[in-house]
Amino acid sequence: MISVVILGAGNVAHHLYKAFFSSEKVTVKQWYNRNIKTIEPFKNEVNITDDLSQLTEADIYIIAVSDDAIAGLSKKLPFEKRLVVHTSGSMSPYDIDKKNRRGVFYPLQTFSKSAEVDFSTVPICLETLVRTDYPLLQKLGKAISKNSRRVNSDQRAALHLAAVFVNNFTNQLYRIAHEITESQGAEFDMLKPLILETAAKVQELSPYKAQTGPAKRNDKKTIKKHLKSLENEHHKDIYKLLTTSIKNTHALSYQQSSKNKTNN
Amino acid sequence: MISVVILGAGNVAHHLYKAFFSSEKVTVKQWYNRNIKTIEPFKNEVNITDDLSQLTEADIYIIAVSDDAIAGLSKKLPFEKRLVVHTSGSMSPYDIDKKNRRGVFYPLQTFSKSAEVDFSTVPICLETLVRTDYPLLQKLGKAISKNSRRVNSDQRAALHLAAVFVNNFTNQLYRIAHEITESQGAEFDMLKPLILETAAKVQELSPYKAQTGPAKRNDKKTIKKHLKSLENEHHKDIYKLLTTSIKNTHALSYQQSSKNKTNN
What we know:
Two copies of one chain form a homodimer. By secondary structure, chain A is an alpha/beta fold. Chain A folds into two domains: 2-151, Rossmann fold; 156-263, N-(1-d-carboxylethyl)-l-norvaline Dehydrogenase, domain 2, CATH 1.10.1040. Chain A has helices spanning 11-22, 67-76, 134-144, 153-183, 192-204, 207-210, 214-217, 220-229, 233-249, 251-263, and strands at residues 2-7, 26-32, 48-49, 60-63, 83-86, 101-107, 124-128, 148-150. An eight-stranded mixed β-sheet of chain A has the order 3-2-1-4-5-6-7-8, with helices on both faces. In chain A, β1, α1 (11-22) and β2 form a beta-alpha-beta unit. The longest helix of chain A has 31 residues, at 153-183. Chain A starts with a strand and ends with a helix. The model of chain A is unreliable at 254-264 (pLDDT under 50). The interface between A and B is large, with 92 and 92 residues.
């Protein structure tokens, strides 16, 4: 049984708490938050506190607070030489105060208050500064996910950046699609199966192979039609830039097909 | 029982053929393609032909060929006053030769050769130039999908354009994420659950409400870090443009939060 203390009460902390609470291999010995009100609903399940001097002993301390608050909170911890990890994609384990043993426990998923998360499929990126700490952190990862693995800081930074593209930026494309459909009295709902299928397709195929559409075909007529119908200049810029990006990615086959055309 | 003839043998034609073939309410009387080889594997199931003069009588003729070929093929049809529809998102029903009754049967989904499609969830956009033709086309839509509805040409054009954003452009963001992770020896596979969850989230929440991340929070430190680590200038441009787009979308709450900060 691994004992943990959770520090913080944002979305990640809440979802981690639930996952640990449901696991037979983990005990949440305590949950700390600066503002105790947020975690009061859980006081019958777990020891809660808003007082760092009251922190209890545990195998692993999990700092699940905003990036900017990690260093400060880790400095205030009233103990040393224990294993302390944060849950951030972009911060270094060195951002944790060096009086403790340090590591990272970064779940690569989007968490919101309302949506339930099946943690067993969430990839968890694990890192410890000292090799001998790794097996314990790995055990914690395996206790809640089938998909935890060692990821160094450079790899984690790349994953965090890539996550912005596939999550935040993709979601903004959905938003623009929402604006485009609504502006013509069409229903955004009609795009939902396509949105799901687009995500499902790259679970099997590479994004390179999954690509279709006017930019990949270099279908100038349709591209021109689309650009003409886009009223928002900003949307037009995004259309142009991503069309060029697709053309660059598929440049070889595109050059070949225009070469063929010239030969005809 | 509605009888149809399919013209063309691309991805859409293949998937439509399968869906019609499985429906008890539809008979595929004939399948035409210029190159008969493509449809020869189906010759034991359906009458096939490569000769337009041999086209049989049917309730609806479905032209599922590339946009540029629709007008020409429709001109060559050796009959008149029958119901002829195309399956294109961006072409008008007027692109079909006027000797026949005209309409559109546009399935809004991404089709590839390999992937199976559950047609019952595919939205189908229906349009007929003459009102009295609509009930028959509607019946055909309902025979294969729970999700068919009347969509005029302006709405269909908006959906087709929006589909480029949620499908082709989103897929290109996946591709860029692939490049970013591989460049650091990280695994693109680790992003796959996030890709699915991002698509799943907007099935319930609006994209506006589903948004999270550094651009929405206006987290300048992380944005700066990300821009610094992007080596590809083109990826940098996409990062900047989509970050600005998210900021614009969430401008009100952003202005309010910076106002609050100033007041503190």
